[in-house]
Structure formats: structure tokens, C-alpha cells
Amino acid sequence: MLGVLRQRWFDVREVADGIVVFEEPLHSEVVKSYLVMGTDRAALIDTGMGIANLKQEVEAVTSLPIVVLQSHAHFDHMGDAWRFDDVRIHGLEAAALARGRAPETLTRWMNPKELSGPLPEGFDPCAYHLKGKVPSSLLSEGDEIDLGGRSLIVMHCPGHSPGSLVFWDRTARLLISTDVAYLRELYALNPDSSLPDYLTTLRRLEAMIPAFDVLLPSRGPTPIEPSRLSVMADGMRQVVDGRRADEHVGGVDHHHFGESSILVGRTNPFVG
Percent of the chain scored above 90 by pLDDT? Predict the structure, then answer.
């Protein structure tokens, strides 16, 4: 399944052996969910924005049983969790996943300026909301998800949110770095973000660079080089140490570090 296949709202492509990304390129968040396939079952890491039917797209790729591993419970990653039976998340994110999101908290994300193409037929942007999903079980640091012939190790990596997770395929030498590490603005501006925790997480991942050859993030280009973690960690250290922002827009401090940026603020209503 090499190359790109446009499936209405989603772009679907294979990014590594047995790993397919479902990208939502027509929204400004350009969020990515990953399907990791073993011989016995497949893990779906995150469930997108809930604008189009991700479950339907996943089932077009594989007939394997699906376990959903939610990296965290921000709206653009948990949208279709309710469609799946086996959904797992860190305990610190479980309540938000179960609660879902009401339309009044999401309609601004349907503003035409956030879109670069048409919404799926039949989708009502004014009624956009997320159904809650009570997780079937909780994920913790060090858990190993056996998929048959490959496994994913759960790593608790707070900072972007308290229960943020990344997933390490030790044998394939790759890290699905989710919303924790990517080449776009790192969001440290949410009410549940923590700059000190984020720095600890990035330093931890930086120390692991010899253990993986590729990163698969939830935003920006994918895959990316693990060496980019050092730039992110160094930038976060400067912010934690009080570095002056390069610009201040709408209550958010923007710190620029080459290809990466860090957004810091508490007055911005974004939770992404």
C-alpha cells in the first residue's frame, strides 16, 4: 500500500512495514492516526477528529481485531473512539475521554479558515460534537501491547497533557511520538500542559535516540529523524529557563527554534 490514497476526508498511506497512517489533511490540524498491524491483531493509535468515519477506513485496510490506544484525550485525537469496543488510555485522560465534547466547545474549529477542502457529505459543522467513550482498560508506563509478531511498549510522556503516551516498537526501532514530539508548533499552552514535565519528557526521549531510527508523529511531516528531538529538548529548556518569546499573539507566546516552535500561554482557549 505504498503511495497516497485519497479516501474522501482521509489520506491513507503506508509509512513503515505494517504501519498505515490516516491523515486528515483538509483541516488545519492535519492530525494523524496510525494503524500498527501484527499477525493476531492491530493497534489503532488515536481516533482522529470524528469528522469522517475512521472505523470504516480502518476496516478497509485490515480485518484484524482492533485495539485502540489513545495517546491522550484532546478533541482532535479521540473523535471516533466511541465506534470501537476495545479502547485504552492513561488513567489521567480517562475522564475526558468518557465525557466527550459538546458542540459549543468545538464549533469554532469548523470555521472556514480552518479548512482547506470540503467537509464530508452529510456532516453538519454546527452540530459537531464528540461522543464520550468509557475506556475498556487503562494504560500505564511499561505496558506491552502484543499484536502477534510485534509489540508496542507504552511510555508515559506528560507535558503536552498529563497522561500523554508514546508507543515504542523496539524490534522495528521506531517510536510513534504522537502529539509529544513533531516538527510543528509544540503545544504547551493548554490548561493541562506542563513545561517542566514536557522538558523531562523530551530529555528522556532524546536519551533514547540510539534506540530508534524513525519517529512517526501525529502532526507535521512523517516520518522524521530522531535527531530532531535534541532541537526540541534544547528549545524547551530555554523556555523553562525564561527565554523571551519571539512574538506574542492572542495571549500565546511563540518561541521559534528553526523548524520547531513552542507555544506557551494560558489565556488561549485551544485544547488540541
Answer: 88
